[in-house]
Design brief:
The chain is of the alpha+beta class and 151 residues long. Helix content is 30%, strand content 32%. The protein has a seven-stranded mixed beta sheet, sandwiched between helices.
Length: 151
């Protein structure tokens, strides 16, 4: 798998992110939807990567710098045709490595509390992420779960 910084201009990436947003709309009420669209990901504090096998997009992930020692995982998504092939695991390994290289002491994320998000929560927990209070402007929400990992 080739994971590379992406400028968010390709149609494959736009389609995958659109699928991600649609999925969030299906499973999360509007006030609890924290997934970023293309424009939301085009901020200086966010780096976005796409993951490819051959010439096929298999996933994506973004890292938002909250401060010099704390990053947040955003928009981690596996293409539907590549589910259960280890894409999310590889992306998460990549994010942890990147966060350490940046000198972050903590890596956090927000995900849904509904059953559909259980596999994601299990994956994060298997990498040592622990449940935590809301961080960085998030507030308590019964539809959200917050997790963090000390690096």
């Amino acid at each position: 798998m080739d994971i590379k910084i992406d400028d968010l201009t390709g149609s494959d990436v736009a389609e995958l992110l659109s699928e991600h947003i649609q999925s969030m709309k299906l499973h999360s009420p509007p006030e609890s939807k924290h997934a970023l669209n293309l424009e939301g990901l085009r901020k200086p504090e966010i780096t976005f990567w796409s993951a490819w096998e051959a010439n096929e997009l298999v996933g994506c992930v973004a890292l938002q710098e909250l401060d010099s020692q704390h990053g947040e995982i955003k928009s981690m998504k596996t293409a539907s045709s590549h589910l259960r092939k280890g894409v999310a695991k590889r992306l998460l390994q990549f994010m942890i490595k990147e966060a350490r290289e940046r000198g972050y002491r903590r890596l956090s994320l927000e995900t849904g509390s509904m059953d559909v998000f259980k596999p994601a929560r299990r994956l994060y927990a298997s990498f040592g992420f622990q449940y935590c209070k809301p961080f960085s402007g998030y507030s308590e929400d019964p539809n959200s779960v917050f997790m963090t990992k000390e690096l």
